[in-house]
Amino acid sequence: MNERIKNIQLYGKKARGQKELLKHLSGQKLTFKQAIYAKCYDWMNYFSDGKVDCNMPHCSLAPFMAYNQNREKRTTKKTMPWDQVEKMRTARL
């Protein structure tokens, strides 16, 4: 077994990014979001000091960090223009 995987399982806190990092180290593919969480988990030394924000404002991943209170949340819900909603309502009648 990989030494890093053993260390994560022994000393790493159960936190967002742990399973993603283990998945990466075992050779599996990650999504963009999973890769961010895995890198933050790795960078924060497996959150050995607790699940806290890294407070590194110059890090390009900081806006997406799992424990950043002001993290950017991607919304997938799209709003439809009002005139299009009206067209759909009249089409149903």
Q: Beta-strand level of the residues, as a percent range?
A: under 5%
Largest sheet: none
Query: How many H/I helices?
Result: 4
SSE sequence, one letter per element: HHHH
Anisotropy-based shape: elongated
Total count of domains: 1
Compute the average pLDDT: 84
Number of DSSP E strands: 0
Query: Could you tell me how far the N terminus lies from the C terminus, measured between alpha carbons in angstroms?
Result: 64 Å
The Rg value, from CA coordinates, equals 20 Å
Name the structural class.
mainly alpha
| Residue runs with pLDDT of under 50 for 5 or more positions | none
Give the helix proportion (percent range). Answer: 40-55%
Structural account:
With 93 residues, the chain is mainly α. The chain has one domain (3-92). It is built from 4 helices and no strands. The chain has helices at residues 3-11, 18-25, 32-43, 82-92.
Put the structure in a nutshell.
This protein is an all-alpha fold and 93 residues long. It has helices spanning 3-11, 18-25, 32-43, 82-92.
Task: Name a few traits of the molecule.
4 helices, 93 residues, mainly alpha, single chain
Task: List the topology elements.
Blueprint (H helix, E strand, L loop, with lengths): L2 H9 L6 H8 L6 H12 L38 H11 L1
